[in-house]
Write a structure and sequence with these properties.
The structure is a homotetramer of 355-residue chains. The first copy, chain A, has 11 helices and 11 strands. The first copy, chain A, is an alpha+beta fold and 355 residues long. At the A-B interface, strand 1, strand 2, helix 1, helix 4 and strand 7 of A face strand 1, strand 2, helix 1, helix 4 and strand 7 of B.
Chain lengths: 355, 355, 355, 355
């Protein structure tokens, strides 16, 4: 089966095709380098986006989970035929939450008020540590005698962790009272939570005509909505911040392929899926409020990651985030349908690792 | 800097060194194959384990996050010099939770009692679908009219998802009353939760003499314990199931290197770290109750993953899980120390991607 | 409006009617006694139950929230006319979770295994502390070097806290290794959680014909199901263990009236509501997995509480728990309908405290 | 034992002493009135406050849990002798979160931007519904196609639920696009959550000299800090928003006594306790970010509630909230000490309901 028809003639994936990435390319990305792991990359096509970004995108997944790319492929095709996925980016800003411990509540509160009174000065100090970051929020919370600051910044096309870390150091150094400092007090770093979200907040949605639900997903919108009710009831008991099906699957695949810091999958998979029936139409949406995506920095412009980034062709981290959200939503549709019957197991048997 | 001195002469990492993995090797692991992502692998050494498994292990991390391997390396060396990490595997069993929707509570309850009354038959049916799986738990929960079964199995050295999926199909087919089925009702698949844990449950601990805390971590046990109190207070507000620092970091690195299904990082990072002062000694433990690890199946015995698996040299999935837990704990120690001051930022500046 | 037609001629509520409860009646229930708070009690009727208990029940609510009793009253009448609420008690057992801290994981694990090997002896020791309690579970969990035991007991018609506390003391005293003890390690006491449930687990359900939905609730089953989807999506983001509407309302009213330990409302309100459309019928269920109810002990047989208990006429704590669950479900129906439009506000204006 | 020495000669608790509250007094507070529940009230004294409010307060608890008032009494005395509890009110504002469902994300986003562009008009509309409420926040969140507004208001000395409900109706009526409305989308009403906090946010703290820890609590600050570490580790696994010991206890007692809407205990008990050793001194703090307290409205100025309010003598809801926080912190100290050994059980045996 031919999943991918390349339409971008410029794409010549030298390293993906087997030419070794030179060790020098890994400088700054790893220590104790002993070589390069090779992870199979499958490409699904076309992710058709509408909304903040429009067009057809190829989506590369690095994975060894048989059936996964095929599942996303079916979802992408379904969504494309349904008119595309509407994506909206609602917020963009990496945030850190340094904790400053004072002897007592009064000192912590005084420091909080000092922060309020010196917003301009502190924002300037934070921004002075970077050439293109911009502070979008400087707030605080109190936890007894512990003052926890929020510093949120636009970080351009970089993921932003290092940039905001530098800015936090500059910020914390200015807060008076000589508190004891824990650099990351409320720390959503690489963990899902129900409280602290950051990075890109993207909402994706698609409306699938009943005919496509029937012929492609071999089910009905009502059945999918009913399944989703089952899941929501169940998730409510589980104490989880991830209310999708298997969002981490698609994210992990794209992250490894495009050179993201893969551990952020644990945080980025914070989400809410919705599957609803409108007559025989299926309405589906995916809300990702803490999604990390970068097109520069880290491993993103190196070796095969650069090639996969070129393949996607996102001109900004925001666009890449929308590609991620759209792909994830498409994948959930196909997966949901498979959970209704024996399809899930059968597909693994036929295509995958069970043989 | 030379982090890794190889002591296993048999280790000849052909593909890690650049020889392309043949596309055939990816059969069953991916669809739409267009090549192989190449991810830098750094190796840290030695992870010294005591307890259920003893010995020195090399730990490969595939990552593009500069400073990460160096941080684990320092943690490993510290723990080795402290006498090693004690690891205990407390449970081993992948579980799935199929949901069976009945018309009402009474029918669901009748089915639950039928399950109780047919334990032997149902366990046999589940085990008949696999050559080496063994049922360790068959239970149920009710959510109104929805019956949710628990099927937990020993799955040998495989991760177990496919094996237990097959067994679930066999199980569900036997439950009477023709319920509507959602294959994964309570679904911890690739998500952290506070309720449903499975896979390997490993606890790791280490006691670090005060002298080493001072000279290596450049702090004191009391300062680390105080930092950890800060974090616990903060995490308590966040609605998270991950009570470690950056557990997903090490897991993601090892997962990509050793051919695990990377998306499980989102679930495996469920954890509790503890840092406590005993006089000037540091007591640290890491509890990972939902850790996934495999030495066979999926991508584990293919190409560079097989080479990294050989490098680790774990003779079972349980041993590999203990290696993961030990490495993760070691990394947390170094990271915690860096959060106390400006070390974290400085290391990123010097070694890493900030340049 | 006459909400309540008394059918139990024997009910002569002396103290509810104004005769002061003698101070001696409060012996053992309070220190520093300075008098008695008087809280208005409204009675709703009839709660029609089917299932584990059958019959019509009067339900007393002590409250000062105007409109609340009227709201429950409408819900009760609706459910009665729909054929009654089906209630099933699925588990009965108060549990405590003492924490035993050992120097290290190995000592904690050895103690855990000792507990496994001495189940019979330990259960006998626990049961020896009470004349009618019976151990239903004795288990353990490990949290690093901390062993956390689970002791679950049938406690008859008492709430059970004191009984199981005594049994825990006897239990803990027998565990070897001289651990440091924190009496309540995993402590669900008077807090909602997604992990540790105990007391009564009751599921209630009702099917309301479309005609009643239309004429009484002035809406449709589809609209209520849609509302409930809104709520589930929203709750999923909130990090809560309470997935009902305002379950604490009815529970608090019944608790104050019947002499329960009111603070348990914070734990008992752990729940899952479901509202689903079946054609034009409404299917509704309420799952309360950590519900506390007592008919003896504490304040339950004193003064006005005894009178309210007599009014309800539950012959056991289990029956009372089923009454609570049925009443709570009935109240949710009326409340849900009011959330659809302006009814909620209008009712408060007309009947209530807003004037 | 004489717990309470009245110092306010004006306090003549007619109804607490047994004179029946006239049924007319319950008008607007209950329907189907059949009488008044009588709940024993114990008073603890003195709660010594510093910070936002200063002075000694009597604290009435309506309860039938033997030993509870005595436990609070010991805590209050301890804190008074330690120099009093420092209380700071950090935020005051009841909030509601109406959900507006649009056909798609774009319509929802357009409505959100309309809200942003019409802040002044909408705030004015909300404030026009009340004589003394004041809007402090008008924000929004998106959940796919569902727009969830935040309306937060200062509500004076009333609890605020009805006031903000009216304002929400006025607000929602103005938002364009004819969305389907669910009045309470993100609904923290009477449930603990990790995300949506409102009402009073109060932090209380106390420093207890080592000598008092030894003589009164019969333990050490180090032992209490260690106990608290146990609890925090355990709570981290439990998926709870309540990180105190038994905060609901004191709140429920004060709520019933002072005529609060008791069901709010389930929400108000959201908290973070901290117990830390500073040398031999104990530092303790209690953070209550979602605390409800009223001195007017509902049942607060009726019958025995009015008498208990007079006894406390708080001149505002903010002052009453600080009294609640201070009392709760004091109670936790005594309770924590009792959890260290057999004291907890022994006290229940001697004073309480176990006899």
């Amino acid at each position: 089966m031919q999943f991918f028809r390349a339409t971008r003639p410029a794409w010549a994936p030298l390293h993906l095709g087997g030419v070794p990435v030179p060790p020098d390319a890994a400088r700054g990305n790893v220590e104790g380098l002993t070589g390069f792991a090779q992870v199979p990359v499958g490409v699904a096509w076309p992710l058709r986006l509408r909304g903040d970004f429009e067009g057809d995108y190829a989506v590369p997944f690095a994975t060894t989970e048989g059936t996964m790319v095929a599942s996303y492929q079916r979802g992408l095709r379904l969504c494309a035929d349904a008119g595309g996925v509407n994506v909206r980016l609602l917020r963009d800003g990496y945030a850190l939450f340094p904790l400053l411990a004072y002897p007592g509540v009064d000192e912590a509160l005084a420091a909080a008020r000092w922060v309020d009174a010196h917003q301009a000065e502190l924002r300037a100090a934070a921004e002075a540590t970077t050439s293109h970051g911009r502070v979008t929020e400087l707030g605080w919370d109190l936890l007894g005698r512990r003052l926890v600051l929020t510093l949120r910044m636009h970080t351009g096309d970089a993921q932003g962790a290092n940039m905001v870390n530098r800015a936090v150091s500059a910020l914390v150094a200015r807060v008076p009272g000589r508190p004891r400092v824990a650099l990351h007090g409320y720390d959503p770093e690489k963990r899902a939570s129900t409280r602290h979200w950051r990075g890109k907040w993207v909402v994706a949605e698609v409306v699938v005509p009943g005919e496509l639900v029937r012929t492609r997903l071999r089910t009905t919108a009502a059945a999918l909505a009913e399944l989703w009710t089952d899941y929501h009831l169940a998730y409510g008991r589980m104490g989880t911040a991830n209310h999708g099906l298997q969002v981490a699957n698609g994210l992990a695949g794209i992250y490894v392929a495009t050179g993201q810091d893969v551990a952020y999958v644990a945080e980025s998979c914070t989400c809410t899926l919705s599957l609803e029936a409108r007559g025989d139409e299926l309405y589906a949406s995916m809300d990702l409020p803490s999604l990390h995506a970068a097109t520069v920095g880290g491993g993103t412009r190196k070796g095969t990651a650069a090639e996969c980034q070129d393949l996607v062709g996102a001109s900004s981290a925001r666009e890449l985030a929308c590609v991620m959200a759209g792909a994830v939503l498409a994948g959930e549709l196909n997966l949901a349908a498979s959970f209704l019957g024996d399809d899930f197991h059968a597909a693994h048997e036929r295509l995958g690792r069970n043989r």
